[in-house]
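Progress report, Aim 2. The chain analyzed during this reporting quarter is listed below.
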Amino acid sequence: MPSLRPVHRTGPGWAVVVLLVAIGLSGGWLLKAPCLDTYATPDGPVLDWRDGRQYVHLCYSDTIPLYGLERLSNGDLPYKTSWTDPDGTTVRYMEYPVLTGLLQYVVMRATKTWLDVTGASIRSGPSEVVVYFVLMAIVLALAWLVAVLATVPLLGRRRWAVALIALSPLVIVHVFTNFDPLAVALCAGGMLAWTRRRPTLAGLLLGLGAAAKLYPLFILGPLLLLGLRTGKLGSWGRAAVAAVAAWLAVNLPIAVLYPDGWREFFRLNSTRPADHDTVYFAFRVLFGWEGFDGPLPANTAPEVLNRVTLLLFAVICLAVAVIAWTAPVRPRVASLSFLVVAGFLLTNKVWSPQYSLWLVPLAVLAVARWKPVLLWMGVDAAIWYPRMEYFRTFDEGTTRLFVSAVLLRDVLVLALCAIVVRDVYRPAKDPVRQAGDDDPCGGIYENAADNPPRWLAGTRSIAGPADRHAPARTSPHS
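Predicted structure tokens for the chain:
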């Protein structure tokens, strides 16, 4: 992780930042804690999830059921261990990308070691999964702390905006819902390394992030676009090579040793239908739409949906490329990165609730206005209540309320995208540039003039008179 420079004198000190993060994480812990309660049975204590308690108390976390479902409780190495679904035909393996799967394995081994050292008598009961959750929560809390600390220097003169990240309602609801804080931390670290003009380290961290969840790899797209606009492609090339090398270093050993287990993540993502938190599912509930593929048997890939989502994301990427090229002033890295990641989530067939954590640092960096960002965060976090009610009852009214909230969330994310695009084309309205920064995340692109390669320069003149719309630029460290 690149070193953190001292916080700007107008911003909070590191102790204050850590305190803010601790407050947000404490809220997250209090929300999940009711799901750790047990009750006595003749065979010993059992985790108390009776009568949908995990949904009633809004404390559900994937960490707990996956400990048994993914066969971690057996102590076996993920991707090596397989099991058969209740249908009796489908062979399953660990469903997560390799780095996330290895995180679960390491914490599982730490759990069993802890129980051995402390002499716990119940090795496979609820005490084990509770210890596992606690240890995993510590790891995820540290990952989120790293993500926030790495994002602070990227805020430029807007250092107090870190409070919006540390105390986000989405952090309180979802920081312990799944394992995504690891990917967010690696992504933030990669962006910080890029800002510190260490492209190889940036690529390594983004590649490791992609080995945990795919989205950190998307950051390389905006960096490429800005490299083309400024003619500074050497650093991007080093970052891209390092990212591929890091991803291969994590994935290749598992792919060679356990190819079926390694492919499970890709197989599952190709065969799963539109998830509950997506616009596709919402349209199915609200309008009776049967989807692009119509009714399908279980474990059958929705091939048309897969192609549509891929095509829509490709269109989003093309649109971001056009924006990057036609903007009167070179866009900021965070602006383009937010558009790409938000576009992926909006068009993808899966938007698990914790995926919204991906957008928290990027939205604060890109939108640079606390009111619309906080509105989106609040609505997105509030979806957790109708979602839990939906899974508890599957009642028609609750289902319609839930998917309506999902659509409202999508509209708010689109509104944030519109704000970002407007600021790109009207840079004088961009709060970051109004504050005197050019691009706090830019690294070698900060204050760089347009100098596209000769083969691209003739497609449009992007320098010159249009720059009058931008405020005067100064170094953020001046």
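The chain has 21 helices and four strands. The CA atoms of residues 314 and 344 lie 9 Å apart. These observations will guide the mutagenesis work planned for the next reporting period.
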